[in-house]
């Protein structure tokens, strides 16, 4: 049971991007911790309507953590760190692609191009999250 609660808490704290984006659409103008709090509250209402007690407990805990510990500056720093990590990943993928191109292996080139595209998409998403 404790494992289930921990899992619910982790999933609530992670707040999938789709949920946060949905909160942005439903509550335009909210950014940072306020937007995150609003998204948690919306998920909590949905969990309560489904009578999912485990999810409700996890979301209540996530809401309490957000209220007590979330700061816009901290959230922005966390998001900036994610951007920095994504940029490093893109640079690494670019180097891998250049190396594959130097070897001339079409299969490896295609694979590296695909990996680079994924990394670039992750970077773009991380950059979009920065101002939310």
Automatic annotation (TrEMBL):
InterPro entries linked: DUF1090
Highest taxon listed in the record's lineage: Bacteria
One matching Pfam family: DUF1090
Record keywords, A-Z: Signal
Protein name as catalogued: DUF1090 domain-containing protein
Signal peptide: 1-22
Stretches with biased composition (Basic and acidic residues): 62-96, 115-132
PROSITE patterns: PROKAR_LIPOPROTEIN
């Amino acid at each position: 049971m404790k494992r289930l609660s921990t899992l619910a808490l982790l999933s609530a704290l992670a707040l999938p991007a789709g949920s946060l984006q949905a909160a942005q659409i439903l509550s335009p103008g909210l950014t940072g911790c306020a937007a995150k709090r609003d998204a948690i509250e919306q998920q909590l209402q949905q969990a309560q309507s489904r009578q999912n007690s485990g999810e409700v407990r996890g979301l209540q805990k996530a809401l309490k953590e957000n209220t007590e510990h979330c700061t816009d500056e901290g959230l922005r720093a966390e998001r900036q760190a994610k951007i920095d990590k994504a940029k490093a990943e893109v640079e690494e993928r670019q180097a891998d692609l250049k190396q594959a191109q130097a070897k001339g292996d079409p299969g490896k080139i295609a694979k590296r191009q695909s990996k680079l595209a994924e990394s670039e998409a992750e970077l773009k998403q991380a950059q979009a999250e920065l101002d939310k």
